Amino acid sequence: MTPNTNLDALVAAVVAAVGDAVVVCDATGLITLWNPAATRIFGFTEDEALGACLDIIIPEKQRKRHWDGYFHTMETGITRYGADVLRVPAIDKEGRTLSISFTVGMLFSADGKVSSIAAVMRDETRKFHADRELRKRLTELEALVKTGAGAAPHGADQTVAGPPEEGGCPFKG
Fold this sequence. Notes:
The chain contains five helices and five strands; from the N terminus they run αββαααβββα. By secondary structure, the protein is of the alpha+beta class. The chain has a domain of 118 residues: Beta-Lactamase. Strand 4 and strand 5 form a beta hairpin. The chain is elongated. It starts with 6 loop residues before the first helix and ends in a 26-residue tail after the last helix.
């Protein structure tokens, strides 16, 4: 393909092929583009999502805050989430809570007004839970260290491994 040859087809192919959800909403918050990754992540088919309000993936508790920010961004044309990643809860078709991260891009009409917002979203639910478990474990270990419960008995050898032998591994059994 030569540069600028069938750009619309190339863009459509990229949006369909990427592993992250690509969702575009109009000024009122109705979904106008929903790629296959959005279907995989959120469970709604393209037919179900197109024309629906973005509320289908926003948890009830976050909706007011979301829409306040959304309409402010539509009015001003300014967002800090074009480069900064936003991490928020979301919901899928079955009502399960997800942890997503995303950036947005503002789309402008010919008269310079914001016409749509495009979001590129990634499901980070597994990572969120793994990080939470690590933070919990770290807190538990720090508490043990503070109380001395995790310390070795006085005079006990606390050496994990000595210096490696010439060319040897210090952890070799």
